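Journal club prep — side note

Before the paper discussion, L.F. wants everyone to see what a predicted structure for a comparable chain looks like in token form. Sequence:
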Amino acid sequence: MLALRPDTWVEDESWQKYLMVGNGDSYGVKGYLYQHWKRWSLQLSYAHSRSREWFGKLPEKGKVPSLYDVPHQLGGALSYQLTTRSSFSVGGMLRSRKVRFLNEDYEPLSVDDFREKREPLNYRVDVGYSYRKSFGEKLLLLRLGVYNVVGNPSEEDILSFYSVHWRGNCLPYGSISFKF
């Protein structure tokens, strides 16, 4: 494993003096549930995983969480079939706190705080509507919805999924697909 040393500001191209070498381990388990009733369907997933590292230059820290250690992730969706062609869904996700590399002032954490601080818990609730119509072998699919009706998605998710920023990072979406 490679990691930047705590309290490090990269000032030149000599990366060797800023890196620590260590070892690591990871494990995890993931489960899914899908249940369908007359007009309702429920989907749930849960993952428990751990990822740890330890470094010879910081023996006093022992095994610390890796930067990508997110022990708990829960996702779910509940859908109601309005008609044979349309449905309404509410979905969401809950993710435990990711390890912080920088403090509130965007400076590297000290040796004492190295891999000890975590981001806030992240969650998001989305709503959507879909309409599906077959024309023999052809298929029309219309989707409308809102990502993050309530929640606090991570900064990483906001940068990855949003090309525009709306108040509270709530983002409407729509798509039209036609299969022929």
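L.F.'s comment for the group: The mean pLDDT is 87. Keep this in mind when we get to the figures.
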